[in-house]
Amino acid sequence: MSLDKRADTLRLIMPQWQGGNNPPYYFGAELLAWLAPATDGPVETVPVKLPSDRPLPKEDGIVARTDLLEQLDAAFACIRKYNPDRIAVLGGDCLVDLAPFAYLNERYDGELAVLWIDAHPDILTPKEFEHAHAMVLGNLLGNGDADFVKTVRRPIKPQNVMYAGLKETLPVEGDFIEKNQLRFAGPAALAETSQPVIDWLKETGARHIAIHFDLDVLDASQFRSLLFANPADQPGAWDGIAQGSMTIPQIVRLINDVAAHSDVVGLGITEHLPWDALAMRNMLRQLPLLGR
Q1: Strand partners, 209
Q2: Above 90 in pLDDT, residue 6?
Q3: Residues of the chain above pLDDT 70, percent
Q4: Which of 20, 24, 141, 172 is the most buried (most CB within 10 A)?
Q5: For 229, left (φ over 0), alpha (ψ -120 to 50), or beta?
Q6: Section 184-193 average pLDDT
Q7: What average pLDDT is seen over the chain?
Q8: Is the pTM of this model over 0.90?
Q9: How is domain 9-284 classified at the CATH fold level?
Q10: Which pLDDT score is estimated for 202?
């Protein structure tokens, strides 16, 4: 099944930034939406509060919890306006895939397969971390903050989840992956072939799949619009944090190989941080005849 645009595909633009407490995610989503090919299908933009200089509150262990829950409800409202067969998501932090993937698992009777292309497992809880973008897959599996989890009416089956490009994990993450027997293949296993993912797909028997593509799975030395490539950071600022090492051709090959074996009904692209474009925008605002 190809990834060609379809009339029954909703394009959901969600410039959410509070899940990672990183305002540039807002502009990253806007630019991603501008760069994406035109679509003949419906397009909805989830209302998201504009970034500001005010610090976000920490509520019940989660930064900006109230804003995130409101935006989650708004995303569900956008989706249920169309009840689409397929959803393409342009974000925003990783939490933007919570509503679309939860909806798609309902839509396909709890038999959705999920390929999580990411350098991180995204299964932490407020006990371990305060930013909800690192909790989204856990929520989809029925784990984590109760108010986020209850929006997932049919949790995704653990056997229907596989990580691609996953790097080093924290002990608590490794324990969760082992306990739930989540499949994974690292960058080396996928460097020349998509076979580990194709084999898993065949084992699941799932006919429909949603793909989460966090851009931080990419090698920051080759693609610079990533969290780990911020030119303002001091050398070594991200030492000890797992960073992606895959290439764009490897990811394109993997996704298209998956599309040849299963019906791709969801595709979420997240965590776009175009530092150079952001610097250019901010510079232009300060120039005569252009800026305010």
Answers
A1: 113, 264
A2: no
A3: 98
A4: 20
A5: alpha
A6: 98
A7: 95
A8: yes
A9: Arginase; Chain A (3.40.800)
A10: 97
Question: 30-47, pLDDT tens digit by residue?
Answer: 999 999 999 999 999 999
- Is the pLDDT at 1 greater than 90, yes or no? no
pLDDT at 165 over 90: yes
Residue 77 dihedral angles phi and psi, to the nearest 5°: -65, -40
C-alpha closest to that of 116 among 212, 216, 244, 246? 212
Residues ≥6 apart with Cβ < 8 Å to 148: 68, 69, 72, 98, 132, 135, 139
Residue 9 backbone phi and psi in degrees, to 5: -105, 125
SS (HEC) of the chain: CCCCCCCCEEEEEECCCCCCCCCHHHHHHHHHHHHCCCCCCCEEECCCCCCCCCCCCEECCEECHHHHHHHHHHHHHHHHCCCCCEEEEEECCHHHHHHHHHHHHHHCCCCCEEEEECCCCCCCCCCCCCCHHHCHHHHHCCCCCHHHHCCCCCCCCHHHEEEECCCCCCHHHHHHHHHCCCEEECHHHHCCCCHHHHHHHHHHCCCEEEEEEEHHHECCCCCCCCHHHCCCCCCCCCCCCCCCCECHHHHHHHHHHHHHHCEEEEEEEECCCCHHHHHHHHHHCCCCCCCC
- Cβ neighbours of residue 89 under 8 Å, at least 6 residues apart? 12, 14, 96, 97, 100, 266, 267, 268, 269, 270
Contact 132, 63 (CB under 8 A): yes
Write the CA distances from 112 to 26, 204, 209, 230, 240, integer angstroms. Answer: 29, 10, 6, 35, 34
- 101 has a pLDDT exceeding 60: yes
Q: Give me the pLDDT at residue 167, please.
A: 92
